[in-house]
Amino acid sequence: MDSREERDDDILSVSEEDDDDIPDVATCQVLVEEFASVTGTDEALAQFYLQDRKWDLERSVNAYFESRNGGGGIRVIKDGEEPELLVTFDSKMVSLLESSSGRVSTEAPDMFKLITWNLDGLDDKHLKKRTKAVANIIESEKPDIVFLQELVPVTFSYLENALPQYVFVAAGTDDYFCATLLLRTSVYFDGHSIIPFKNTRMGRNLLCIEAHIGELKLNLLNTHLESTAEFAEERMEQLKVALKNLTTAKNSNITSILAGDLNIRDKEVTQVGLPSGVFDLWEACGRRPECRYTWDTMRNTNKEIGGRFKPRMRFDRVYLGQPSKPVITPKHFGLVGIEKVLGLQSFPSDHWGIVTYFEVKGKKSSGGSSSSAPVSSTSSH
């Protein structure tokens, strides 16, 4: 079976479902069309909702409208003189928060965790199961902050519904885009802006989030820079914009983190130059060779690369910009999504995700080191 046929099967058939009592394909198609008609959405989103509810149309439609209107989330109401921010909680979200190992507090934790990951949403092969695997990994890892790239509307909607314990902030709504997730029990959203890259040919931008963890103020920069070797000049200019926003808070008490699928090559970083006081976290945390490549066609078989040469690239990166008096210390740099999805011969994405741990200074001993340089990690992930 060729790859196109596999993709069609993944979207249109029900052969991957675990239950034996599912309707036949013709009935499923009718249900998909009815869901899309009632909700005003598309058939891909209909597949997500119906398959998760054993093809019960009424349950699926109700779940959709609950998540859009009556479910938990953040909405801006603009019918008065001043916009109001309305925060609502559905029952699933409340139970998750009540049972969370984290605690809602103004006190900053000793440690916090960040994941950044390109989810390859433009490849529809096994998209549903791959996205569900991503949700499961996020549930398991319990990161405080998540940077996602290459989301598409259907995967964004699915993850937003599957992970109500996170605030979702998206940089777009059409085609593909980035989104940043903040764990409600530890990270507090203060505001955001989107900076379009003026030279982009691919709709790329920089998603900037202002947030705080206790007294720790954060400037979170999530981006997906221009792809392919052909657009190196555009990509380097975009990196300059991102690094400028990373270092603008240097003379304040704000800690900045820039991460995402930068598509960058080492020689391009050398040509642009990293500003003083900016750390590449893979390098700062020990340069472990097993964590170097995040787009690695020798280990990740999601993309079919012809010939004997299998490219390995460090496209995904994390950069840290500290204030003049550093308040966090990077402690670990590892990878997630390195196991194939159960029942498939595919990984969750063609990219590995990066997971990083940060220690909040003053909250826990860092082994007596008073240097502002990050501390290397010897643990594996």
UniProtKB/TrEMBL annotation:
Cross-referenced Gene3D superfamilies: DNA helicase RuvA subunit, C-terminal domain, Endonuclease/exonuclease/phosphatase
Region of interest (Disordered), ranges: 362-381
Compositional bias of kind Low complexity: 366-381
Entry-linked Pfam families: Exo_endo_phos, UBA_4
Residue span, Endonuclease/exonuclease/phosphatase domain: 115-351
Compartmental location: Nucleus, PML body
Cofactor requirements of the protein: Mn(2+); Mg(2+)
A GO CC term attached to the entry: PML body
GO molecular function: 5'-tyrosyl-DNA phosphodiesterase activity; metal ion binding; nuclease activity; single-stranded DNA binding
Nucleotide-binding is among the record's keywords: no
InterPro entries: Endo/exonu/phosph_ase_sf, Endo/exonuclease/phosphatase, TDP2-like, UBA-like_sf
Listed CDD domains: TDP2, UBA_ceTYDP2_like
A single BP term in Gene Ontology: double-strand break repair
Keyword line: Coiled coil, DNA damage, DNA repair, Hydrolase, Magnesium, Metal-binding, Nuclease, Nucleus
Coiled-coil spans in chain: 222-249
Entry protein name: Tyrosyl-DNA phosphodiesterase 2
